[in-house]
Amino acid sequence: MSRSLEIVNFHGIITASAKMKSLFETLKRVSRTDSSVLLRGDSGTGKELFAQAIHNLSRRRAKPYRALNCATLSEQLMSSELFGHVKGAFTGATHQHDGLFHVVNEGSIFLDEIAEIPLNLQAKLLRVFQERAFNRVGSTKVEHVNVRFISATHTSLRNMVADGTFREDLMYRLRVIPLFLPKLSDRNEDIQVLTEKFIEEFNQLGYRTIEQVSKDAWDAMMSYPWPGNIRELRNNIEHAFAIGLGDTLHLEDLTPELQGKQPPEETALENIEKELLVKALRDNHGNKGKAAEQLGMSRPTFWRKCKLHNVY
Ligand SMILES: Nc1ncnc2c1ncn2[C@@H]1O[C@H](COP(=O)(O)OP(=O)(O)OP(=O)(O)O)[C@@H](O)[C@H]1O
Fold first, then answer.
1. Is the same domain home to 131 and 214?
2. I need a surface site. Which of 22, 132, 254, 255 has the fewest CB within 10 A?
3. How far is the CA of 160 from the centre of ligand 1 (A)?
4. What residues does ligand 1 touch, defined as CB less than 6 Å away?
């Protein structure tokens, strides 16, 4: 089906898009350095794959690489995950814990949803840049670390700096090399390429073989805006494999959104919840920490509800 497209597989990132291919060339050059990279792109556009590729292409490839999603943890847990803690540092700290900065020494760290880092922790992160030093929670002993920073955000850090929710000095440290990942809807050729790739992947599981995609299914996929990008496309193919029968992927096998329908489980109450999440995010310029606060929810609960309602 996609014979005429020139498909590239770059460290697991599959594409036929010229925009993506030119990003790979930049990535190869950038990866040779230790400069910090800020990946800017919507949810599901492949930021984590890019981060891993940067590490794999770098001189640090034999050293550790770790990723942390800054939107899913409370401030205390995030602090302990990043810097570690000593026994007795807080209630429940029954053992000493090595944080990621201890573990990734000489390697790379990927901080996803960096915009969600609370201001207190932003100051500590800045110290890692400036002094290559940090303290475990509850300890006065200074530890040193040599780490390459890769971070990602779907919102503008510049807007957050203007709002006073993100430190300008930290933003400049993090975005020495900003890279912008295109949305799936801005690279239509990849809808076809990735659909075929995911079909191939699921065919290999052996419980069903899809050999073709019906015209109305293709039409729907090509005109859908894909707010969840590649992750949502993959979910759709998985959905179709589970729901449909035979060797053809039909429009009815895709998720209700692709068919222009409301997902059946979305009751009126759930719709209200979804609207509240969207509004709180809009009021807070996409900052999930602040949006959670406005709704009186913990950050992890807010994150879980956003995922549940496909709010990106
Ligand atoms: N070009 C691609 N080729 C193959 N698989 C891809 C591609 N882009 C993304 N994926 C797959 O899509 C899913 C989402 O990608 P990834 O987690 O890297 O996105 P993300 O931008 O980091 O998302 P989020 O911001 O929600 O964390 C993963 O399963 C990933 O393997």
1. no
2. 22
3. 25
4. 13-15, 41, 43-49, 112, 194, 230-231, 234
117, two tokens: 């880092």
Q: Quick one: 226 and 276 in the same domain?
A: no
Is 3 part of a structural domain of the chain? no
Ligand 1 atom with the shortest distance to the CA of 234:
12
Pocket test for ligand 1, best of 111, 231, 309 (most atoms within 8 A of CB): 231
Tokens 């981060």 belong to residue: 51
Check if the beta carbon of residue 70 is closer than 8 Å to that of residue 78. yes
- If one counts the domains in the chain, the total is 3
CA-proximal residue: ligand 1, atom 18 (nearest): 46
- The answer to whether residues 311 and 278 touch, using CB atoms and an 8 Å cutoff, is yes
- How far is 249 from 237, CA to CA, in rounded Å? 9
- Whether residues 102 and 227 fall in one domain: no
* Gap between the Cα atoms of 14 and 75, Å rounded: 35
Distance from Cα 234 to the centre of ligand 1, integer Å: 9
User: Does 169 lie in the same domain as 62?
Assistant: yes
CATH at residue 103: 3.40.50.300
pLDDT tens, per residue, the chain with 312 residues: 545 789 999 999 999 999 999 999 999 999 999 999 999 999 899 999 999 999 999 999 999 999 999 988 888 889 999 999 999 888 888 889 999 999 999 999 999 999 999 999 999 999 999 999 999 999 999 999 999 999 999 989 999 999 899 999 999 999 999 999 999 999 999 999 999 999 999 999 988 999 999 999 999 999 999 999 999 999 999 999 999 999 999 999 999 999 988 766 666 777 788 888 988 988 887 888 888 888 888 888 888 888 888 787
Tokens representing 300?
């992890």
Examine the fold and report which residue of 180, 212, 229 is the final residue of a domain before the chain moves on: 180
